[in-house]
Amino acid sequence: MNGPVPELADRADRCAEALRDDDAVLVASHIDADGLTSAGIASQSLARAGIDHEVFFSKQLDASELERVAATGYETVLFTDFGSGQLDHIVAHEEAGDFVPVIADHHQPADADTEYHLNPLLEGVDGSSDLSGAGATYVLARALLGDDAKDLAALAVVGAVGDRQTTDGELTGANVRIAEEGVEVGVLDTEKGLALYGKQTRPLHKLLEYASEVYVPGITGDQQGAMRFLDSLDVETHRDGEWRTWADLDDEERRTLVSALIQRAVRNGVPADQVDALVGTTYTLADEVAGTELRDASEFGTVLNATARYERADVGLAVCLGERGEALDAAQELLREHKRNLSRGVSWVVEEGVTREQHVQWFHAGDRIRETIVGIVAGMAVGEEGVDRDTPILGFGYKDDENVKVSARATHDLVERGLDLSTVLREAAQAVGGDGGGHTVAAGATVPRGKEEEFVERVDEHVGEQLS
Ligand code: C5P
Ligand code: C5P
Ligand code: ZN
């Protein structure tokens, strides 16, 4: 059986076999939306296959975290959404007889190899846009369980969307085939529509007002303008005295809204590529209650980031495992706090301004922005006043007394021109006594405090070389 990503079928079969060979497995995963959904897929499929397991989360799989993994005493460790980038360290543990690693990841592999390694990049599949960590874990789940894993495709889509793998508002490559499997078994609906964040939970006027994806004059950032625009359309904006959401509209109303918004954008001189970005594919989790965050893949991803990046991965995992009630209440509380932190963080960056080098721009938030969300803030700040869209951005935040975390973000256009942030951050960090990695378009590193300037210089130079 080939599964949804034929290129990976052999590796997936071998990894599944290694898992079946043990009766207890430790799952180790990353603390973001993709890592949590990976763990959710791994945990449910191991349970279905009758394999005992425990789940361990880590912010960054460095040498000391790998010591902790080894100390658990599990003979088989399944790493999801990380592991490839730390392969050299993992292989050292394997050679020492500490554990047998099985890896389902999509990060740039370090220079080493091991037998049970499932990563799209090893088979020519794009790991930054076509398959996420959760997608790789799903491929493994399909090898382990066959068709009985197909309902887990919904979580794989949340992981991919949460990892920002969409291009022009929709998934591509292997991710599409995974989404199709979800549609086939009824856990997922896909539909062309407005590509704005908050379709399930934001009242219509706020959906439009807050839409920072595309700037539509007189609507974006303008509550009165957004309300006037909605009033002018043949769309019922209220029902029973309450604002309706995108999810509440019928098909006709959705079409009316999208075409009016496009017309407005065109008339106001919004560039064609940005107008196109108003429309995309919506990934809806069919089994979730309408009007809740979990119904929309993108909002689901934000809920997960709101848990794990605040040391509450347990809450996010519970949600991925289908627990509602208390787990969901706790997640929603964390979500409110997360949204406040993001908005404060972005405002701070805009007020302080970024420092421009020749090829990159950067800010240092010190203790003002949590290191676990500094990358999300950096990404959101791009395009705001004073923050250039076409220049890679670096954001620093203190990690502990000795180290600084740095997150880097860029655009797909820059990647097409030769940029690879993963290599740049790894090399620059290693040169100043730290380490890093990630993807071409989004990467991170840890560097010793006090080395920030030297690090920026190296990054600037290397980025300049790549883009020349
Ligand atoms: O470790 P992992 O692969 O799960 O994390 C990828 C990170 O890169 C996510 O935080 C995601 O939001 C970010 N990303 C981004 N812009 C892109 C692609 C990914 O900010 N275009
Ligand atoms: O933490 P942040 O969201 O900036 O991470 C962006 C990407 O870089 C993620 O895929 C993450 O796994 C990777 N990363 C890494 N090594 C680090 C920090 C981040 O590979 N030290
Ligand atoms: Zn990932």
Walk me through this protein's architecture.
With 468 residues, this protein is α/β, with parallel strands linked by helices. It has three domains: 6-190, inorganic pyrophosphatase (n-terminal core), CATH 3.90.1640; 194-341, no CATH class; 353-467, Diaminopimelate Epimerase, Chain A, domain 1. 44% of the residues lie in helices and 16% in strands. It has helices spanning 9-20, 33-48, 63-71, 87-95, 133-145, 153-162, 174-184, 204-209, 223-231, 251-267, 272-276, 297-308, 313-320, 326-352, 374-381, 412-416, 421-431, 452-467; strands spanning 24-30, 52-58, 76-80, 100-104, 117-118, 188-194, 238-239, 242-243, 279-285, 355-356, 361-364, 393-398, 403-409, 435-438, 442-448. The strands form four sheets. A six-stranded mixed β-sheet has the order 10-11-12-13-15-14, sandwiched between helices. A five-stranded parallel β-sheet has the order 2-1-3-4-5, with helices on both faces. The chain has a two-stranded antiparallel sheet with strand order 6-9. Helix 2 links the parallel strand 1 and strand 2 (52-58). Helix 6 runs antiparallel to helix 7. The longest helix is centred in the C-terminal third of the chain and has 27 residues, at 326-352. It is globular and about 70 Å long. The structure holds cytidine-5'-monophosphate (2 copies) and zinc ion.
